[in-house]
Specification:
Four copies of one chain form a homotetramer.
Chain A lengths: L3 E7 L9 H9 L3 H9 L5 E7 L9 H4 L4 E5 L9 H13 L2 E5 L6 H7 L6 E13 L13 E11 L9 E8 L4 E10 L2 E6 L12 H14 L12 E2 L24
Parallel strand pairs in A: 1-2, 1-3, 3-4, 4-9
Antiparallel strand pairs in A: 5-6, 5-7, 7-8, 8-9
Helix pairs in contact in A: 4-5
Chain lengths: 262, 262, 262, 262
């Protein structure tokens, strides 16, 4: 069986900031969140590549996009720097079948907002409070091997209301010590592609070091991987018919000019 | 009670084409589909404006957008000419609460694809075949006063698979003489806004002259009208907390720099 | 405009218990929860009847069921005493169009479980902790006039996972001081009928005295009221066809015997 | 890897009828639909048992139910003869994780109606017309290896509106020669269990001989099989809390009597 080809993209900005915050983050993720996750999620069935915004072609040349089965996305302060043309390509690839796992502040990334069609806005607070996740769905590949509930001792709060479409299937809802709730694990299908948004992952806390979080991310990558690809349709498809006996009142008129794009 | 302010937008290209096809369309819609619908849907509770792509600011200056409760959209061959900046404004307005009724080939419009996040592609055929619509939902404001099933004698076929998100609530499925089916009436909610896609409406057949079609469109406009508007959130909202007793390991570090967009 | 005919059903067991708990509950609801709500929700557009399990025909004779637009249900320890034949009638009436508002421990009532098809089980705890409700949907008739978030100082905790179908539209998620979350306000449509489950309402706390709770219940009753009734189909409907040209290989055989129920 | 344990249940009434109809059906299914499917779906990863209503314990003794991973159900005229106690057990097993594949006129079976909560009524017609199925979802395990569209030359028509809950995920919509449409392949999740309703399968036509139909059924069985079982909760679960600091006004009162079922 061939490996699932995973690409972990990180804007990699916080990890390189000067000053005490950057210093603190580097104690948690010395080589960046992307490289940390590459190591933490390593497994025989996964071929993981870690890339970042500062690399050529923003880390995602066409050849890599077209060789990626599941894209994991971490971004926060540099969303605006991601090229729109790259977002177009990623959207097409997702609709074609590529899985997309969007992490934490990636809720505001161009690619997630593009897939959702909504503002994806939410409430937030950063006081290092406790978060408790609750599994909502009773049986799902993403929750396999994870306890029904578990805590993160310190986290950034992301709270409702979260402006996403109604068809998000709830995998997790989070409780926060400070009084908020959040749909923190939600799946969507768009075209051929599966999408998982997972809220935990603030850069100043070692959240990706947590065993449950790692288990969920590994599960999500395997869940999101496509069995196959199908080219998204660049155009609507003109199809023949069974047998039409109605008399077409337009039959005598050449309508081909009607479909010339102007 | 104040009137619902409706704006019917039409690319108005087919209606002005030279040659026999344009001549034929003008026999059905002498002043364009937008002006025809303005007349056909006239009612005491609606204030209807008809605009088109060839007007200044593509027919939709900011003042009109901000005064519109429900936008009806008809486009086909000129989707690419609609300005992206206008689409941004319309999306924001829909998420803010404006209803959006997308007609026929508007399934491929920039605004509909933006709201959906998918290709919105489909199968099609133009042989003037019969279409039969079936009401799927058993009780809905959009179907009030419309028989459970009715036919259109000649139509363009739009067929499955139709690449839209899973949360489309089915109002109508169409049967076509030539052997296809289509989710021809589907609603969505995105942010505060309600969206209705309705497939019938090919320009070379007098479909908008049909009494059932007019009834459905009038119902849909009233269903989609917002009770109120709320500004969409330009930013996530930072919120206070109940009472957090966890000790924040970041409390001694100034993290404000982290949120500076780069 | 005719009034919405509301029937509030209460098992009315706790309110009549002897001892200190019953005494306490009677200080909150001297005439029972049903009669308290009848008074609290009184409005010009509502005709409210309060009934209880100890009345003839368990409070719901056919004439009353058939005259009810919205049924509000409160039950807890006496679910098993409700007759199955009554549940059959209520289910048929809901599918016919009657709204159903299920309160608190009514999640385990026969009628709610019948409508859902699932166990409707949940986690719970009774320590009088604080509950905070968060509005999830950004625009909905049930939340009109209610703040985005509000608290109940003391409540019974109902927590996830809550075993309900996936098509529950989230109106509220609750946060509990003790670390749990719950989909505490959820709507469903079944047949012609609208259903709203709303978790707050434990009998030992004056939750129905809360102005926000009352506002939500009044909104929910108006939202759930049907515009019209349609008889549910006792049988599948045999329908004629457009025009079938395929040769039926069974045409020579009398198949009427096949449909005789045995 | 252990085999998926499949039980195919058939009321087996039509196949044993006297007269020309029964004779005709026996030419298609000499040993009954259940035994035909047992043979047609035979595969190394499936352990298939074929049972029928006329067997002891209606074909489904407890030991067999508890050893079944996926139950396939075919019934038509004998729904009423299925014991309610058996339906209770099957529902509990599905909520526990057992897959359920409901065929054709099983839409009106007690177990399907129990899982749905709706009437499950539909329109129908039996003139042996052509049916064409269209795949709606673009990527799903149930459609693997099946063409996007295919036909059945002669079928009983099942048409909309079909009274099922909104969360049915559309796998197939059928077109019928006579002018109807139907959501003919729909999945649901209820508790831990997956459900697939699939409309084709009328007893007087050799529909289960069709290679595409067999492929879909095999796929559906594998899709519906649970990875594991979890006991459904007979009772709500009382859970401890994180830390509640609110003072409980009921703390001085013994509330244990409140939860005594009456």
């Amino acid at each position: 069986m061939s490996k699932i080809k995973v690409t972990i993209w990180n804007e990699n900005v916080h990890e390189r900031e000067e000053g005490p915050v950057g210093d603190h983050i580097r104690t948690i993720y010395p080589e960046g969140i992307h490289n940390y996750l590459k190591g933490a999620l390593a497994a025989d069935d996964l071929e993981i590549r870690a890339v970042s915004l500062d690399m050529p072609e923003q880390g995602l040349p066409d050849a890599l996009i077209n060789d990626t089965d599941v894209l994991v996305w971490w971004g926060h302060v540099a969303h605006a720097r991601v090229n729109d043309a790259l977002v177009d390509k990623l959207q097409a690839r997702v609709l074609n079948g590529m899985g997309l796992v969007v992490l934490h502040s990636g809720h505001y990334s161009k690619i997630f907002k593009r897939m959702m069609g909504t503002t994806c806005s939410l409430h937030w607070r950063e006081v290092g409070e406790k978060e408790r996740l609750w599994q909502i769905v009773r049986r799902h590949p993403i929750t396999e091997g994870v306890p029904e509930t578990f805590t993160l001792p310190h986290t950034e709060m992301y709270g409702e209301s979260f402006d996403i479409p109604d068809d998000g299937k709830l995998i997790y809802i989070s409780w926060y010590e400070g009084g908020n709730v959040f749909r923190s694990g939600v799946t969507f299908q768009r075209g051929n592609g599966r999408i998982f948004y997972f809220a935990p992952g603030h850069e100043t806390f070692p959240i990706y070091h947590d065993a449950n979080i790692q288990k969920i991310l590994g599960n999500a990558i395997r869940w999101a991987a496509p069995e196959c690809y199908r080219e998204p349709w660049d155009e609507n498809i003109r199809v023949p018919h069974e047998k039409v006996t109605s008399e077409n009142p337009m039959a005598a008129i050449d309508t081909s000019a009607l479909h010339k794009k102007v």
